[in-house]
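Hi, here's the filled form for the chain we discussed.

Project: internal
Contact: R.S.
Residues: 1850
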Amino acid sequence: MARLADYFVLVGYDHDKRGSGDGQGRIIQRFPEKEWEDNPFPEGIQLFCQPGGWQLVLERKSPNFFVAVLTKINSERHYCACFTFWEAVESSQQNHADVTDEDSKFIQTPQLFAPKSLVLVSQLDHTEVFRNCLGLIYTIYIDCLDFPLEKVIGNLLTCIVPITGGSQRTISLGAGDRQVIQIPISDALPVTGCSVALLLKQLGINNVLDLFCAALTEHKILFLSSSYQRLTEACRALLALMFPLKYSFTYIPILPAQLIEVLSSPTPFIIGIHSSFRADMQDLLDVIVADLDGSTVVIPECIHISVLPEPYLAQTQTALSMVLDPELEYADYAFPPSSMSVSSMKFQDKEIRAVFLRLFAQLFQGYRWSLQIIRIHPEPVIRFHKVAFLAQRVLLDDDFLTKVLDGMAFAGFVSERGSPYRVCDLFDELVANEIERIRSEEGNPQKVLKHVKEISEMLHRNENPYPAVAMHKIQKPTEGSYLRMQRKTFPQLDEGMVQWIIDQATAKLKNAPPAVKAEMKCMVPMGPPTAAVIDRNGIILANSARRLEVVRNCITYIFENKMLEAKKMLPAMLRALKGRAARQCLTEELNLHVMQNRAVLDHQQFDYVVRMMNCALQDCTPLDEHVVAAAFLPLVTAFCRKLGSGVTQFAYSCVQEHLVWTNLQFWEAMFYSDVQNHIRALYLEMDSEQLLETGPVNGEREERSALEVGAEQLCMWPTYSKEKQQELIDKEESTVYSQAIHYGNRLTYLLLPLDTSKNRLLRSTAIGDMESVSNSFVTNSIAGSMAESYDTESGFEDAETSDVANSVVRFINRFVDKVCTESGVSSDHLKALHANLPDIVQMHIETLDAVHRESKRLPPIQKPKLLRPSLLIGEELVMEGLRVFLEPDGREESMGGSVGGPRILPAEGAIFLTSYRIIFKGVPIETLVGEQTVIRSFPVASFTKDKKISQHSRTEQDIQDRIQLRSSTFQLMKIAFDEEVGSEMVELFRKHIHKLRYPQYVHSSFAFTVGQAAKQVIEPKQKEKNPSLRTMSKNIMKNAKKTIGRQHITRKKFTPPTLDQRGIPAHGDNPDQISVSEEMEQSALTLSSTIRSTDKSTMSHVVERACCRDYQRLGLGTLSNSLTRSKNEPFRITTVNRMYGVCRSYPSLLIIPQTIQDNTMHRISRCYRQNRFPVVCWRNSRTKAVLLRSAGLHGKSVVGFFKSQNAPTAGPSPADSTSIEQEKYLQAVINSMPHYADTGGRNTLSSFTSTHMNSSGKWGSIRGSGRLNAYSLNSDVGVRLAGRETLSSQANGGPSDSHYFRQQRAGLYIIGEKSQLKGAKQDPLQQWEVVPIEIFDVRHVKNSFKKLMKACVPSSASSDPNLSYYRSLEESDWLSQLHKLLQVSVLVVELLDNGSSVLISLEDGWDVTTQVVSLVQLLSDQHYRTLEGFRLLVEKEWLSFGHRFSHRGAQTMASQSSGFTPVFLQFLDCVHQIHLQFPMEFEFSLYYLKFLAYHYVSNRFRTFLLDSDHERIELGLMYEEKGEKKPQHVYKSVWDYIDRLSKKTPIFFNYLYAPEDGEVLRPYGNISNLKVWDYYTHETLSEGPPYDWELVYGRREQMDDGERTDTMAPQTQRKIVWPCYDNQNKTEPDAISKLLEELQMLECELGQVPDKWKETWDKIKTTQRTESKQEGKHLSSSSLLMSSSLSHHRRSQCVYLHEAAVGSTLNLSLDTDSSTTSTPSSGVLGRKSTSTLYSQFQTSESEHRSYEGVLYKRGALLKAWKSRWFVLDKTKHQLRYYDSKSDTDVKGIVDLAEVESVTLGTAAMGAPKNIEEKAFFDLKTTKRVYNFCAQDCQSAQQWIDKIQSCLSDA
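And the returned structure, exactly as it came back:
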């Protein structure tokens, strides 16, 4: 029973405190004045009466009513029902302190109204009753009814109603009223009325679910509404939805405005506030705001709400939808039901609550099986085992449920509902009895709805136990009465009368008998066991059945001592242990062996068991780790091995490196679990003793759970005597105490390290730091902070002041204090525990010292033998192999990922550092592929970056250092050094790498040191000539000086510039300038005229190096002995740069126009960056258009050239003359073309005066139109090119009208950078035009390459979609740069092909310019697409024209800071893209491009070293001295190496090569047409990079020779090609290479000298061409070749099964007649030729089978007789045998050449029965004797005759 209302309060406006801002309220009267002892009066009630503030208003408002909730500090709630009305303010109060009496005569103040509130304070929540009672009091006052208010209020305060029980009580306040109060049946179930349904109606299903999840996971929630009562209803509804959980944080349904700062509270809350205060909440970043009026819920971005796990979320949404909108199900029906019952709001409210109640029953199903009862007497102590509950539900990773279980609400749930003996309610019944029904009804909406309605009826009956209620009789005020003018305010009540009524009622209650509440306590049902809960997840276990089988088999092998099988299966088992089911299976299997007394193991068994335990503990989440560690805890103290006499090592000493052992939460859960088991056993033992005395033992009683035992004891507790009760208390405490001692020992075992001499370990650091952590749950974040603070200063101070023993004792003391205090252990026992713990720890330390000492004496684990790598001749080891583990990176092929194949990595081996490479060589750790060799290497010169990798938890060996090495050859090594490799060796290894990678001088690199005897390298001084210059270099320089001195023009003596001076361009007026005088122009000075006859042989090297042969081929310059040449030749070879005085980065011989004098070149060169002036590098043989290259203009030169046309100048200047010379130069280029070389009045700048030149601006032709950019280069040029047919009307190929021609096409296009040519204007009088383009610079290339490497060779696998391979490739922009290069190149090709010359003038002229110029020549001239031509192209454009290979490749210490920039690689990639689109136009193969890409950074050859010819001459690299001895197999030039290798193997040759004469290639440059080069992504782990031919193919030939000697071993043609491991081109060569190889082998076997492959290929081509002509067939070579290589081009990366014995269908059509361009044909018609004979081969090989049949053969090893199908082959002279007649796989071969005799034999043991004696015969060879058995004697004799016949024929 309880009072209906505790206090009645009259609160009014405080006129005395008016004037200072907002008004305030004050309590006018309170009844009773004296506080109740059991319920003190709440303070601050006046704030809640007017939450918006006390304010006077100008109009009288309608009375309002709401209920505010005040929460006491003990979580009890006061319900304050506030009834507010407004009274007129009296004039005296209205004018108080505002105006004087004199002024009041003249000022007419408006009428004001003040609020006044009638407040009921109660502990009961009867909202409607309070509304009626306060409304009655107001009605009596407003309508002046004849009822004393004092009596009404006194009766209200003395009304007593029951709290629970389901009764109804009629009350009357003595004013002719009557009310019926319905008492709920159970006070545990919340009473909601219609509030829940109203909340769903206001916000919707999804918003309410969001708020529901947010409240359960302890977020801040704020409701907004303009109605105070709606706020209260919404907050009440949200709390009701959380049932059976109770909200324990701040709960304020109506927050007063004065307390709005509460919203900044750091703790969670549910608060309601009026909408008018929305503006004050702008800074709330962590509050979820629900607007009830606007139906919105706003969740800040920084908040993540954990949602319900599936399928519960979808089921809840569906059920709520069915309740709120029942018509939805029938909305699409053609004939919907005529009558559909829609529930009223009250019933909908209960149905919604029923849905949430079912949800909680599903979420918490089986929770009682995870309750741990620690003490039963005198009071039950209950704990909840969260990890066990989540593991049983298979929800360890669910974020929502984990947060709910960690929350305060669930902690209160456990304390309230954990007791096994208490009153049960609806939720208990649902969890215990309805789970099976809920589970079976999933997916059936009608059954779910039926169940929901059943639950809702129970909830409705709880609130309304009596549906037929008598009518209320409540008097209400007349309508509009509040608007009447009230002369008097609410009256002052007689306090004495009210108190007298209260006292009278109190006296009656004292005399009345006390009401006894009948508590229906019972044993709480447990519900279905956990096994039933796990059944629904059985599919997970079924899917992992194979893994479980692996685990079981491996453990069986270990305990049966079958170590070889266990070793093979161990890697697969360690992978399987990443799954939960496998870890559970492991613990069960190990526990089974412990129970069978098989816990004492030998050393290898012990190691395997420990490795499995460590693996299971490390590869799981923290919650999983708790589950596994709990299962392992009894096992680690059971498994052991004997180290010596009396010394035993247990497994716990080897599994301590896991943070779970330092987690207090884990130890508490384990302790409480064991205590519960012992408490249960204690009472079961007592019961069994009693039952033995009274009768037989009931088996069912033995199966009772601990909670059921506890419930029985709590039920019987009142019946025990005090002595019995005390005895039970003592026994329980003794049980807990003994377990505390036991766990003290367990903690000691797992916290003390094996080597206790170490003062500090990472784990013990964690123990020490735990002291600063509260007793709450310890999470991984704490452990992480401990690990990070290991090396901090505080860590070292702690290490000095404390040792391991003290740290462990302190940790155990804290654990004991916590668990013993919660378990009710007495203080005496606790003191005894603290006293004993140091002794326990010290004893264990002494035991561990002996174990540690003996364990050191164990023999070390046998590690794999280190495999030494094969080295090149001249390659030397710098550091011997360091034992390492090669770890997998982000390339999944080596891990056997989606591509398939074995797990090649991780591998164990050694890392070697040589003078040329970094090499790893080892074997896979995976036992099933352990016979394979893993080689991963890259040149030291390609090394780009190394970094240390953070430590990982590991199970293999104790790995100390881990580093990552990355190479520009797209290789990555993640290596972990073995424990035997010290850190100092690792640092030495890294220093050696950097020293070799960045030598101080380039001649210290491998290309120079290879093949030379070790000698002291003399380092050159800075300002002296390099002492390592060779004699030839000196002679060249000396002869060059003499040559210039012999010119017939009188000059001063020439002084060659020093190294420092050569970089400065010589001034035009310098008399010592190296140039040919103007007087020499008429004689057309040739190269021979500048060289004495004795020096001509010396200069021949210069001529060859300058690629003059190519210039001669192009008609750009010829060499002759005469001093004259034809004046018609437009170009000549100049020696102006012979001493590299004009431009150090240009070659010595250059092509310039015939009319340009050498002395002008100095002045022209000054305008260009790096003095790289325009020179001709190629000429189109058809259009005679030329391609020129240069650097971009200097900034100052550009400014000078782009002066305004109207800018006046005083006169000519040196810059003006330079501009004129440049224009002459460009005009001479234009005149060299037949189209523009008309002799009559051509429009050149020479026809204008210098004044005109000055006024119109210098080099006006460079005023570009700016029409073109990088993506629309052909916009205007294409228009001119479209008229190419009209441009060749004249005989000389050019139009007569220059203006007409100018409209069509410019004579010269200058491709320049848009940034340099910005703002230029086109001069219409010039015949050249500037095309400004936007192009990337080398910085972009460098950054793009870094991203490309990370995309193609990622360091680790990533599941982030933003880091996927294609996303990373796109972000690298590598393909975009290729697209731009190809686009510009195709444009230039188009211009050249249409008769316009082009000058490429970009950047410094040695990067992008070189790329574009090279690509243009490759596309335009088929000569450069041959092996010889491509070499010439690279030598000419890249080497001679000074691409900075050394600087861009960071080859020395000086260029280290510039970084690696692969400009040449980008060019090769472009060639690769063109090759893919035109595979028949290139003589070289794609392997050739990969070979160059690899070796241009490898530094194996000297070809790509240094930055220019000038530097190469200084170091003597250009030419070798005569008689110089070169070591065998040491090649200084990559071209020599390729030439010699090409004679031996066709590896660089493209069999599809069938070019068309004069074909100009125009490749597609769109990104969609570009492919990622497989050079970036493919690797060969079986032999390393396949670009050092001697290491890969040379070793293979030796192996093949060795294998071919033994023909007795069974051989198979079946090969398996593994991705990323095998060299596919080698193991599965293309058909032509295979045939050529077999042809050579046959020639060797026949004793003939094998022809070279090229000669054989040429013969075949000639034969094919002849046959084709004879047959008159005009078949396209492209069609046949493409069809023959179809399989080669369409192969995808997978596991290939290759059968070389199967016949080939290759058609060799090699006719190079390219006049036909037919499409690929569908077949070949006509008679057979030699090229089609291969198609006749059949798999049956019938032509080779002379005789065949079944024979029994006796095995060589086990002597067993087996039936085989034998084939006698006269052609191959061998006897083969198969498993059966249909089998194509040869099981063995007997070479008849080795047969000595065939004789009849005798029957041996095990021979087939019922066989005649004469059916046996023996075959004797030089190696062994074969025993055969035929079916009968005739068959045996036939076999003997056939074999002897073959022998005689041979």
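Let me know if anything looks off before we file it.
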